[in-house]
Structures are given as structure tokens and as C-alpha cells.
Amino acid sequence: VQLDESGGGLVQAGGSLRLSCAASGSIFSINVMGWYRQAPGKQRELVATIPGGGNPAYADSVKGRFTISRDSAQNAVYLQMNKVKIEDTAVYYCNLKQFGVGALLLGDYWGQGTQVTVSS
Q1: How many CB atoms lie within 10 A of CB 86?
Q2: Which of 30, 92, 99, 104 is the most exposed place for a label (fewest CB within 10 A)?
Q3: What end-to-end distance do the CA atoms of the chain give, in Å?
Q4: In sequence order, which residues have a C-beta less than 8 Å from that of residue 85 and are 6 or more positions away?
């Protein structure tokens, strides 16, 4: 499985940015796609996740500002980032978790990361 991210860059505080991630390879039907981020000197943290056919979940820090969506037919996931803040600056990683019977985790895949920098 390969995850290819795009859409990162430099944006002013209060602006918007959209991240995209396309998954390729052997994709199982039971999976969760999501976005995580890691700021310098900090641990990687969850931003948002969305299961196939399910409801999204968000970190409290991005609720009401970020929206995650997916195109299951295309095995793609997107993150619309609105009203960005300086503290949103981080490397953003796409993630795919694949599950089997009984919610057994069969695979946990990561993209290479895309830098998002928010300026004042």
C-alpha cells in the first residue's frame, strides 16, 4: 500500500488549505483513513479520521475549522483546513488502517508527510 499526499504549503493565519491523499495497492473494504500531524519537538497527534461509510472524528483543536472527507471509490482522503492558526504548523501525515474480521488490525500505513506552515 502506498499513500501519496499533496497540497501542503505556506498559508497566512486565517486562510485555507486543502490536503489530498491517494492510496494505491491492496486496499481492503474495512478501513479507516485519517490525518495526523507532528510539530517540531512534539509527538505526532491525531487530527481527524474517517471510516469507510462512517462518521468523521476530530481533535478538539481543529473542530469547527477542519473538515475530513473521503472518496472511497478513489481510495482518497482530503483535509479542508479553514481559519488556520499558527499552531497548525506541522508536517501532516496521511494514514490508512486496514482491518479484518473482529476488528483485527491488518495494516497501518503512512504517507511521507507534507509540510504546512502558517504565517502571521
Answers
A1: 11
A2: 104
A3: 37
A4: 13, 118
Place of cell 481492503: 28
DSSP H helix total and E strand total for the chain: 0, 11
Confidence at residue 40, expressed as pLDDT on a 0 to 100 scale = 92
User: Is residue 94 helix, strand or coil?
Assistant: strand
Amino acid at 73: A
The C-alpha cell at 34 is 485519517
Rounded Cα–Cα distance for residues 98 and 117 (Å)? 30
For residue 28, the number of C-alpha atoms closer than 13 Å in the C-beta half-sphere is 17
What Å distances lie between residue 40 and 11, 43, 52, CA to CA? 18, 8, 31
Partners of residue 9 on adjacent β-strands = 116
Q: Tens digit of pLDDT for each residue in 49-90?
A: 999 888 999 999 999 999 999 998 889 999 999 999 999 999
